[in-house]
Amino acid sequence: MYYQKEIETMPVEALKDLQSRKLVRQVNHVYENVAYYRDKMDKAGVRPSDIKSVEDLRRLPFLEKEDLRNTYPSGMLAVPIKDCVRIHSTSGTTGKRVIAYYTQHDLDLWEDCVARALSAAGATVDDTVQICFGYGLFTGGMGFHGASQKLGCVTLPMSSGNTERQIQFMQDLGSTVLCCTPSYAGYLADTLTVSGLTPDDIPLKIGIFGAEPWTEEMRASIEKRLGIKAFDIYGLTEISGPGVAFECEEQNGMHINEDHFIAEIINPITGEVLPEGEKGELVLTSIDKEAFPMMRYRTHDICVLKRGKCSCGRSFIKMAKPMGRSDDMMIIRGVNVFPSQIESVLLKEGYSNNYLIEIDRVNSTDTFDVFVEFLPEDFDDTIKTVTAREKRLQSELKKMVGISPAVHLRPPMSLARSDGKAVRINDKRKLL
Ligand code: ADP
Ligand code: ZN
């Protein structure tokens, strides 16, 4: 199902033309109104008139999170503040928060993007959408909220937390669509089991999850334990919020809303643009924003882009699930380890998605500990079982990442959780 069929299924040539026209307009808007970026362009020796089509995009300088910190709070604002109607900020996962401004046009555009995601997952006016993303400065709650109403769905602004009440409202009010972080969806599944309920006791059909990396193993586990189809959605505050890219019924990669954003993949070290299909850092350019336009913003998210015929009929290019941020990568005993690798083993072996990786340095050697909960339906605390299962997990993890962690199995629902984005790594090493 489409929300804006003509745009979503536009032939690629027409889409490129549209992008080129919008890009030219956006570059001029930014050059005229954002002194900081004008200065960057001047230093790079690029004039707005040099940018005539999407092919010229690579001539523009990158924007980094650091640039947004340098211009905190409003140095990147491209319209008078009186033209803005909303402010959001990043959740600050990797440092100081970034402030993003929106005009009404920008909000409309953003909500359209999320409405496309809801439609692609199968939501219609007949659905009740339970939003358990955090409301407030974080873009998750409000982004889904506006879109769900635009689509005509009954919208439940639950925000995160109070998990028993979430399940009760789900049952009493008949929620058919759930929107939250994948880790919170896992928590809801645990709570359902502990309450003695099964997926048949809740009316949910569809889940749209994002704001943090999650693996295919986690998708399979959530789908089974909540009795739903689970779709991925990607976005970041700097570019608007959730809905930069969304999954269709194929559930294998997210279509980027290319009428509003241009995506590139670069080598994160050299900055060189990589050919389609190669893995690297995602760089996004907004081409239709008024208040907070971003030119070649480096997301630090590592993924792959691929354009091809999709059975859903959309022409938008697809991005693979980001495997984490480049700054999420841990180097333990000299070996590169991503949390997503650990997660895929834990889920495949039948454990909870609530886990914690702890790293420390003792006598110049890195220690590497993985804590994970049993699923409530699979809990067995006899010493013999725990020891055997810890040993097996240790060896499976070693096969995946090349080094062997100490594994600590914990009872269900016993490790700390966050209601929003999960915290997976506790690196206690003092490396400076
Ligand atoms: P912060 O950078 O403070 O976390 P945001 O809330 O804007 O601020 O988060 C955006 C980031 O969240 C993205 O850059 C990406 O790393 C992560 N993210 C969002 N959606 C997904 C997703 N579907 N899969 C993986 N990572 C995601
Ligand atoms: Zn598709």
General description of the model:
It contains 11 helices and 20 strands. It has 432 residues and is an alpha/beta fold. The chain has a 9-stranded mixed β-sheet. β8 and β9 form a beta hairpin. The longest helix is centred in the first third of the chain and has 22 residues. The radius of gyration is 22 Å and the shape is globular. The mean pLDDT is 95. The structure holds adenosine-5'-diphosphate (ADP) and zinc ion (ZN). Adenosine-5'-diphosphate (ADP) binds next to β7 and β12.
Strand order of the largest sheet: 4-3-5-6-7-8-9-14-13
Give the radius of gyration: 22 Å
Mean pLDDT across all residues, rounded? 95
Largest sheet: 9 strands, mixed
Note the gap between the termini: 52 Å
Strand tally: 20
The DSSP helix count reads 11
Strand content: 15-25%
Poorly predicted runs are none
Helix fraction bin: 25-40%
| Distinct small molecules bound, one entry per kind | adenosine-5'-diphosphate, zinc ion
Structural class determined from secondary elements: alpha/beta
Query: How would you describe the shape?
Result: globular
Explain the layout of strands and helices.
Layout: H1 5-8, H2 12-33, H3 35-44, H4 65-70, E1 86-89, E2 99-102, H5 104-121, E3 128-131, H6 139-151, E4 154-157, H7 163-173, E5 177-180, H8 182-194, E6 206-210, H9 216-226, E7 229-236, E8 241-247, E9 254-256, E10 261-266, E11 280-286, E12 297-303, E13 305-306, E14 318-319, E15 330-332, E16 335-337, H10 339-348, E17 355-362, E18 365-373, H11 383-401, E19 406-410, E20 425-427
Parallel strand pairs: 3-4, 3-5, 5-6, 6-7, 17-20, 18-19
Antiparallel strand pairs: 1-2, 7-8, 8-9, 9-14, 10-11, 11-12, 13-14, 15-16, 17-18
Helix pairs in contact: 2-3, 5-6, 7-8, 8-9, 9-10, 10-11
